[in-house]
Design brief:
There is one protein chain. This protein is mainly alpha-helical and about 110 residues long. About 85% of the residues lie in helices and about 0% in strands. It has three helices and no strands. The radius of gyration is 18 Å and the shape is elongated. It starts with a helix and ends in a 5-residue tail after the last helix.
């Protein structure tokens, strides 16, 4: 298929997927920062809200990855479920990666351990 609308659709969906992955990663950094800063009076409620936001971003990434696979399968059936698998792996690893990265960054920030 050499349809320009097809290419634009894939490009737009990949942009949305990248944006959602970035938001998921940033919410992981925020979670790591909140845990490192210690307890506050509203920390339990903030953690609950942050977990719900992370779930929303994760399932958004999975849904957009599935849509990308559906659109790409119209062009080539051998590209089936590549983005869905990538979404699962990258989305699942975003929290541990961002937590480790926050630990390293906190060493260089003022007041770090």
């Amino acid at each position: 298929m050499n349809d320009p609308r097809f290419a634009e659709t894939v490009q737009l969906l990949q942009f949305v997927w990248t944006l959602l992955m970035l938001l998921l990663y940033l919410s992981g950094l925020s979670s790591a920062q909140m845990l490192a800063d210690g307890g506050g009076e509203n920390q339990a409620r903030q953690e609950e809200i942050l977990i719900m936001v992370q779930r929303l971003f994760f399932f958004g990434v999975m849904f957009v990855g599935f849509l990308i696979d559906l659109v790409r399968m119209r062009e080539d059936r051998h590209k089936a479920y590549q983005f869905l698998l990538l979404s699962l792996v990258m989305g699942g690893l975003s929290e541990p990666i961002s937590a480790m990265q926050w630990k390293v960054w906190s060493l260089f920030l003022p007041g770090g351990n």
